[in-house]
Amino acid sequence: MAQRKQFRAIKGTRDILPPESALWNRVEQAAREVFAAYGYGEIRLPVFEQTELFAHSVGATTDIVSKEMYSFLDSPVSSTSEPAAATLSLRPEATASVCRAYIEHGMHTWPGNVKLYYIGPMFRRERPQKGRYRQFYQIGAEVLGTADDPAMDAEVVEMLMAFFERIGLAGCTLHINSIGCSNCRPAYVEALRAALAKVKDKLGADSQRRIATNPLRVLDSKLPEEQAVIGKLPRIADYLCAACRKHFAAFQKQLELRGIAYEENWRLVRGLDYYTRTTFEITAPGLGAQDAVCGGGRYDGLVELLGGPPNIKGIGFAIGTDRVILSLQETGRAETEFALDVFIAWAGSAAQQVAIRLARGLRGAGLSVEVPPAETKFRRALDLANRLNARQVVLIGPEELAAGQFTVKQLASGEQVKLVEADLLAHLQKARRRG
Dihedral of CA 78/83/89/94: which sign? Predict the structure, then answer.
């Protein structure tokens, strides 16, 4: 008999199993709660878009567009009047999609600044490594409107820090920079390119290629042998125009008003073409050299570039959910062990009917409950409850039915009590709060 093929997850993807998936839910729910407190609403975006959208926004010469996107030709269905075949791409990031939706749905007519957040998978054909996958997940937020006040930048950062505090990710460091605007950055890029050309032979192949295509990306290099060379390159702060210097100083003051500590990092330029002025990054412990868990910044001209109304300002960020989860796990703050609140063991058909009714009521009260589908001896039921990490076991047999009471056993301590149904829920809820 021929051996059946065993299918496995594609390289760079993986399955997120319980109990780890419970940690993912906790992190995502914390984001929803914190972001809602700041007035953000959730937007759910398509997983794929026209390739041209990302080429226009992210930049055709970036590694993301030129090497890392999953793109495919979408042929029209012959029985419809669809346009000719188009090239589509799985989204490598979400800011471009948010801006496309903002334009398409006329959100510029909404009152005030439009505050949106998203949660979901992104896709890049990268070399898989610790905390980095080809299908990875992001939690992100964007503010779009006419306000370009640095106070908005600071509030975005404040919300981020509140989120990290909520999930217990301690030891985070905020790094900030300004990369100027279309008036002053070109002069810096040319000065940087000229300086890099003089030291080209001391750089690796990737950095050499970026001198022509996107010299700012050289500053992102983590290669140890390139750090001494990069440390002597021109700095953007020396090329900022007066308006950008004023904006950056006001941003720093706003952070200080909020009691947010930060470090200036002149090499923080971000890898996407649409950024302007404010950029920031947050690093966390437990991740080694690739320790960034969030990055973001301002992109004031992106909406107009994509065909939207002029003078729309924007700022946003993306949190690498995979890396946040990894940092929580590496620093011992994950709490991923799944605990079942109640295991109901029963014996006899009459007891099964009571067990089913009881389980429905307890679940409706918010408790997690397991009821075995078949009758099992109590000793074996207790063993299964232990392996399922149940907090409490409710035993229902002929004796319990006759007495009108349930036997409740706490597995951790072995403590056992008999309770009438009216007192059962309060007892189980108290046990859950104790953990």
Answer: negative
Look up tokens 């590496």; give the residue: 330
- In the chain, the largest separation of any two C-alpha atoms, in whole Å, equals 91
Q: Kindly report, residue by residue over 42-98, the tens digit of the pLDDT.
A: 999 999 999 999 988 877 666 677 778 899 998 776 555 666 668 999 999 999 999
* d(C-alpha 12, C-alpha 326), whole Å: 16
Stated pTM of the model: 0.86
Of 277, 310, 330, at which residue does a domain stop? Answer: 330
Q: Give the domain-ending residue among 282, 301, 330.
A: 330
Write phi, then psi, for 98 (nearest 5 degrees): -60, -45
CA 178/CA 279 separation, integer angstroms: 6
Q: Helix 185-198 crosses helix 205-213 at what angle (to 10 degrees)?
A: 140
Cβ atoms of 284 and 260 within 8 Å: the answer is: no
Beta bridge partners of 279: 177, 297
CB 292 within 8 A of CB 282: yes
